[in-house]
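Attaching the record inline, Q. Sequence:
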Amino acid sequence: MSPVDEYVSIVVAAIIALMLCAVLVLSFVSLRRPTTPPMAVAGGLVAAALVTIVVVRPTHMPIAAAISLTALGIAAATVGGNPFTRRALDIATGQRVRETEDGGILIMAAHGADPDQTRTLMRGGTVIGYLERVAMVIAITVGFPEAIAAIIAVKGIGRFPELAEPEARERFIIGTVASLLWAGVIGAIIRLALVW
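Structure, as predicted:
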């Protein structure tokens, strides 16, 4: 590899690392209450990182840069997917669904019914989201995208009894797609940085 190629690879790795660091900062800021502006900027940075890696195509990523990008990418996919997914869910549902601390949803009793009949569905959604994004980004990074089908199948089977409620179905589909889209794009960035 020529010195110019090595230099380009290092510069690209540094640019992408800075973008992923910014995504992480925006994600941590948005964890408590996701809002559109920081998540739009974070999404734009992820898209810019993908475009950068596709357009520039570094020929050989130094091992230190590859390890750094992989660690940053896994962190950005895992942590950043939480506020991104929650914001997508808020937009899709018009914030009419109340969320519990663990990422579940409260289903209110019908109008005129006993208010004590409120029940919780989709408990543990936050932890499940973190786990699915970690599994997704690692599967793509190591070149085993077939694992994505298993991730979705396990999640669907585990949630199947709760999907009888329309609110739960809507939340399951939107949340899963948003979460996996976020992790998939970041996984693609890492994979492309490592294989070119």
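Residues 63-93 form the longest helix (31 residues). The chain has a mean pLDDT of 85.

More tomorrow.
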